[in-house]
Amino acid sequence: MSPTRSTRTEPEKSTGAAAAASRHPVSRRRLVGAAGAAGAAGLLVGGASGAAAAEALRDAPPAPLTSIGANGVPFHGPHQAGITTPLQAAGHFAAFDLAPGAGRKEAAALLKRWSETARELSEGKAAASGTGSALDAGPASLTVTFGFGRTFFDRTGLAARRPAGLAPLPAFSADALDARRSDGDLWLQIGADDALVAFDALRTLQRRAGDAAVLRWQMSGFNRTPGATDRPRTARNLMGQVDGTNNPRPEDPDFDGHVFVPADAGQEWLAGGSYAVFRRIRMLLDTWDHLSRERQERVIGRRRSDGAPLSGGEETTPVDMNKQLADGSLAIAGDAHVRVAAPESNGGATMLRRSFSYHDGYLDTGDVPVPDAGLLFVAWQADPLKGFVPVQRKLDRGDGLSRFLRHEASGLFAVPGGAREGEYVGQRLLEG
Q1: Is 243 a catalytic residue?
Q2: Most buried one in 19, 170, 173, 236, CB count within 10 A?
Q3: Would you give the DSSP letter of residue 334?
């Protein structure tokens, strides 16, 4: 996962209320509260002065958007937004199935509507069919990413153009998958640094599906808000562990080869695109919390405090898989997560993990309620048969962390390359 962004400002010294007011424009929310307070004071002294004060406050210019609200991510480009975009604070995932009788023509019209809506929202514009919840907000780094499931190609008459990478994922022994919350013809990933902006995008896109598609499933997640930490840091998951230290980075020389489909892969519409593996992974948090901190660290292979490997160094220090402790045991246990998931343990298999945590209340297990919480895991790769599949097979067989996880939903989606100016996502497939 990408490090969280951080914005810090130093407080200004105040020399009086008037000076402070001149330096700090009043926000709309504070205007309402201040106007109400001024009005109440005016009633106590006769009303006239209070009304004048309220009128002056109403005429004051609004404060500019903060950097969080003003940040925008371009919709058009060689790759879809939301893959290498820094991880946002709020996320939604949704899958749709084409409605009965809908085919290639209806799918093309839908993707055109959705792409135009996503472009408008990513620019901070209120879409014509918007909910109104984001009318007074900026884009807040909103991204919308579109993907196609295996069944999409059958229902649009494009089975001959279905890429080989969309072969069904194999079954894993730890899977407890709910088919109702898995797969789908069309997949949406929505992210934003403001929860209302993210919700507005989800709701607007769902409404704009019209009669062409019906919602199959939807899940929501969260991450840290930008600026919540003293400096940019790797995200933590709900187990309290630093999660994403060894993610590939865009500046790595082989990044594109691991994450994006090359132009010579035989599917022109998919060039510059990627494959997304989505998994809903419930964490057995009550069981995990009963472990000592030392035991938790042995399961992961890293210190909880700073993410440094148990073989020594700092968070970004390469893990020394061969280091031994004074008693001759391995510093990184044989079933430690960092060992089993490492590229060197999986023939170089690499994925870009870009996940969101979730908490959906509690489950009634018949004994005591347990948290329905965990990870909405998303892994991006150029080929899932060389990325997710071999790594998950290895984890399924020998990962100490797997005892504390339940894989409850799954999906694999082909994500087209980014739309050019004047083009909608998937146009090269649907009109090619």
Answers
A1: yes
A2: 236
A3: T
